Amino acid sequence: MNMKKNIIISTFLIALSLISCSKDNTKDDERMEIPEDLVFNPIWVTGLYEGGDRWLYPWKGEHVMLLSYSKDLDRGIMQTWVGWCDKIYEFYNECTGSTREGGPEFDGCLPIIQYRGTGAAAVAWVGGVGIYMEVEYFDGAYKAVQEGYCWGLNAYEMGRNFWSYYSKLGDEPWCTGFSVYFESAALEAKGIPDKNEETREAYTEYMNTPGARFDNTLGQNIGIGGWSSNSLFAAFCLKLMDTFGDKWTYNVWKQVGARPDAQNDQERQDNFIIASSIAAGYDLCDLFEYWRWTVSDNAKDIIKGYGFPVFNPSAL
After folding, report:
1. What DSSP line would sit under 6-38, residue for residue?
2. pLDDT at residue 7 tops 70
3. How far is residue 170's CA from residue 155's CA, in Å, rounded to a whole number?
4. Exposure of 6 by Cβ count < 10 A (0-12 exposed, 13-18 middle, 19+ buried)?
5. What is the pLDDT of residues 111-140, one digit of tens each?
6. Which of 9, 23, 99, 255 has the fewest CB atoms within 10 Å, counting from its CB?
7. CB count, 10 Å around CB of 200?
8. What is the pLDDT of residues 54-91, one digit of tens each?
């Protein structure tokens, strides 16, 4: 038993630097109360929520680590789940050009942690590293893999970690819309089976609603019909992905990141329109005006300077 204790102590950090924002009053000797029948070394996780500090069991992929309450989960199912999460991570990396690496206690992986007391299905660090998934939802995601599909929650919450465009686009609906978009796009692009709602229908609802414009929907963080503003923005992104393919998909967020910081709502709107045009290789001013967005004269001049062919909305 002493040898096992020494291995655990030398392998994993006692304090979790990612999460331990509050003082940890747990005594070292209390932490050593580890069951003797462990199959593999657990990781000591401290947290912000009601679940308290505890040992969790790691299921490590290439980029992502799942941490569960139980060590008795089916290894084949967990391997499939973490493999899908690795693919989702890779899609985010390919699209944004950025990485999200956890600390040494997670071997550099982005952790998805089963936890109680988040107050939501899951909570993720916006622009940071790490996802807490409520116990019942973690179990539900596990059951979904058993049944042969992946919950979109995995991709959605990872979007919180990868969001880094506040200075370019602002807060909502851009931030959550980014996650909703990737919830569909990542699973589709990587061929991961899912049962997500058909977010694309929000686009159709918008286009068929007389008087609907950017200014009175997305610009006010207001949705359309039964769709939220986040789903509506995601639907526009999916339409751009469907229309312009990989060129737009794998470049637009890099172009958003290259735009200057926006000082007002019009500049935020312009940043996305300009980034989309550069990524697609087309002048998309007519398209966004067809969509009843507002394109400033400055944005039109910037896009015109690239010499791109003008995309005709009738080609949709």
Report:
1. HHHHHHS-SS-TTT--S-----HHHHT---TT-
2. no
3. 21
4. exposed
5. 999 988 777 888 888 888 999 999 999 999
6. 23
7. 17
8. 789 999 999 999 999 998 999 999 999 999 999 999 99
The angle, 0 to 180 degrees and rounded to 10, between the axes of the packed helices 135-146 and 153-162 is 120
Calculate the average pLDDT of the chain: 86
Residue 42's alpha-carbon distances to 12, 23, 102, 302, in angstroms, are 8, 21, 16, 54
Tokens of 267: 């500049």
Instruction: Please give the model's pTM, rounded to 2 decimal places.
Output: 0.85
Tell me, what amino acid is at 89?
Answer: Y
Place of tokens 């109360």: 33
In order, the DSSP letters of the chain are -HHHHHHHHHHS-SS-TTT--S-----HHHHT---TT-SS--EEE--SSTT-SEEEEEEE-SSEEEEES-S-S-HHHHHHHHHHHHHHHHHHHHHHS------GGGTTPEEEEEES--SSSEEE-TTSS-EEEEHHHHHHHHHHHHTT-B-THHHHHHHHHH---HHHH-STTHHHHHHHHHHHHHHHHTT--B----TTHHHHHHHTSTT--TTTTGGGT--BTTB-HHHHHHHHHHHHHHHHHHHHHTTHHHHHHHSPPPSSHHHHHHHHHHHHHHHHTSB-HHHHHHTT----HHHHHHHHTTTPPBPPGGG-
What does the block give as tokens for 250?
């794998």
- Distance CA(277)–CA(271), nearest Å, equals 10
For the chain, the distance separating the N- and C-terminal CA atoms, rounded to the nearest angstrom, is: 67
